[in-house]
Sequence to fold (281 residues):
Amino acid sequence: VINRQDLDGFPKFIAEEAYDHTAPDMVGPKGARDTLAPMWASIPDVHYEIHTTVAEGDLVTLLATISGSHIGAPFYGMLPPSGKTFAVQAMQTLRLKDGKYEEHWGGISMLSLMNQLGFFEMMMAGAGSGGDGEQETSWEA
Amino acid sequence: MAREETKETFKQIFGEVFEKKNVDALDKYVADDFVDRSPPPGAPTDKEAFKAQLRTWLEAFPDLTPKLEAVMAEGEKVVGRFQFSGTHTGAFFGFPPTGKRFETLGMEAYRFEDGKIAERWMWRDEMAIIGQLGLMQMPG
Fold:
């Protein structure tokens, strides 16, 4: 679903009332679609590569890399497309039932993604106050 | 290691290193050819860099308190999920202390080899931390 950017594919794999512990407002397939559609519009070549899985009972954790390039719409409606590419880590745990996930924990390294796309440079340039904007910012800990 | 042994080792490391904040205790758990799969951008991936990264967090949040929620494992691979909280009293990635507190979700994953951590992945809800400390107005 992700690698084909298949916005209609979510109901096959996400339970209707699926709960996201990282993004509680993102409920079920509709929530996933509403959240991911604008991101995929910015990054039309988004690619999710799973390196390792850890499974126990009805839980599975994916250790993955998500990559792509900012060649589509403005990111978050704010950052104009730059053609910049990115690759960031993702760690996501799913609780599965009948082939669909009902709970999700974790996510991608969002700050690293925004850093690689130049989002913070834009924010800090926009702030224009000098001071805090001058440090070399390393976003991931 | 079998699943239960892997989980017990993880809990031991979590207690000693993360709860008791004894970063040097990692020395006996981490393999010499260890690779960190989620280092900060541009940072080295070795054992010393792993320890330096944990110290950076402790300097920014000296009262950092992790509470282990769940541990899952398959063979020698293990994932721990925890809530953690802290008060921002030291510099955090260049941001001066705000005195504010955050609480959010974090995850650590290890692959053991001969009983030692050979690979590590991590995830923290950094967006929640930035938001709760009021460091930046995030969109959406």
Notes: Chain B has a mean pLDDT of 94. The first strand of chain B starts at residue 30 and ends at 36. Strands of chain B lie at 30-36, 65-74, 77-87, 101-113, 116-124.
